[in-house]
Design goal:
Layout lengths: L3 H24 L14 E6 L2 E6 L2 H28 L1
Antiparallel strand pairs: 1-2
Length: 86
């Protein structure tokens, strides 16, 4: 069980690095004159097992709803596995 702690810390660190890298890769293309691209985005906030989904258009929001359902199923599976282990 103690071997999982460094793995968890490493995954959190990798997540921060990926988010920061993604921010800097998209931030340099904004504000260019004549650029007609639209930026779409959204997010999921998990409050326990209940997801709060938001997005800038229907397509993004629908994809995030599917992702939220997958996250709920994964969390239930992990909960059931933890009960069997402990």
């Amino acid at each position: 069980m103690n071997a999982l702690i460094p793995l968890g810390i490493a995954l959190i660190f990798v997540g921060f690095v990926l988010v920061t890298l993604g921010f800097f890769l998209t931030a340099d293309n904004r504000g260019i004159e004549g650029d007609d691209r639209e930026i779409h985005g959204g997010g999921i906030i998990m409050i326990g097992p209940i997801p709060v989904v938001f997005g800038t258009d229907r397509k993004i929001t629908a994809a995030l709803i599917v992702l939220a359902i997958v996250l709920i199923v994964v969390s239930i599976v992990f909960l059931l596995m933890a009960r069997r282990i402990l």
